[in-house]
Design a protein that fits this description.
Blueprint lengths: L6 H9 E4 L4 E5 L2 E4 L5 H10 L9 E4 L16 H17 L3 E2 L9 H7 L8 E4 L13 E4 L2 H10 L1 E5 L2 E6 L10 H12 L7 E6 L1 H4 L3 H9 L8 E3 L4 H7 L9 H10 L1
Parallel strand pairs: 3-4, 3-6, 4-5, 6-7, 9-10, 10-11
Antiparallel strand pairs: 1-2, 2-8
Length: 265
């Protein structure tokens, strides 16, 4: 009989392009999210090497970290913040990448717009130049943050060099008290494991207490996996996941949705 595989193993194996004798792997990346802070050097590297973006259709950029949270009619007053956003706007235009600008109704925190727009889906590999990319693991995706050099590599090749992390299971059974939120739950897990307890691992969260969470609650749990030292957090998709995704702009529809559901299950 074949050896049973975890959710993490299934997604890793499905995206494995190459494995070197020393264990270094080359992974195909389904979705690359880009923001203004960790991308300028990556785009400049492409420009200097005379390279293009391999899959603009698999890439989405958003002005995120440096935008005003209230009145945006006056633009960005802080010079360095304004420069970063203006540089992103220039780069996405030059390289043909879909972009949610500061005044776009779809604009928001990079790890929220992916789920809101249906860009984050079960079984995907998702990367972004931000540690809290682990948020997307709530949808049964393998999602993790990457550095600026890696951002350039993904832009150029749609692949990423990685050593395979370890897998860790965290199971939470029972019913949470009415006043206990998803953040309380994950803080309790971190307290039990320690702030470095997940180091070098991808955590798969399981159990009744996890299943009872909304998608927003699951996103909180996976987001804060980083505070426990983990490389990423994941929760297997179920009917709660599918109901959240149905009807969103970039999610499959009609017959494509039925085929996707069979695969996701």
């Amino acid at each position: 009989m074949p050896k049973p595989r975890t959710l993490f193993d299934k997604i890793w194996d499905a995206h494995l392009v190459d494995r070197q004798p020393d264990g270094t792997c080359l992974l195909y990346i389904d979705r690359h999210l880009v923001h203004e802070v960790t991308s300028p050097q990556a785009f400049e590297g492409l420009r200097m090497a005379k390279r293009t973006v391999r899959r603009p259709d698999a890439t989405v950029a958003v002005a995120d970290h440096n935008v005003p949270t209230t009145d945006r009619s006056r633009g960005i007053e802080e010079p360095e913040s304004r420069l970063q956003v203006e540089t992103l706007e220039k780069n996405v235009k030059e390289f043909g990448i879909p972009y949610y600008g500061m005044t776009d109704i779809r604009q928001g925190i990079v790890h929220i717009i992916g789920p809101e727009q249906g860009l984050t889906q079960p079984g995907m590999t998702v990367v972004c130049g931000d540690s809290h990319t682990s948020t997307h693991g709530a949808f049964g995706a393998l999602a993790f943050g990457i550095g600026t050099t890696e951002v350039e590599h993904v832009l150029a090749t749609q692949t990423l060099r990685q050593a395979k992390p370890k897998a860790m299971a965290v199971t939470v059974e029972g019913d949470l008290p009415a006043e206990c939120t998803a953040k309380d739950l994950v803080l309790g897990i971190i307290r039990a494991l320690g702030v470095g307890g997940g180091a070098g691992s991808v955590i798969e969260y399981r159990g009744n207490a996890i299943r009872a969470l909304s998608m927003e609650g699951r996103m909180t749990v996976c987001n804060m996996s980083i505070e426990g030292g983990a490389r990423a957090g994941m929760i297997a998709p179920d009917d709660t996941t599918f109901a959240y995704l149905e009807g969103r702009q970039h999610a499959p529809k009609g017959a494509a949705l039925e085929r996707a559901l069979d695969d996701w299950r």
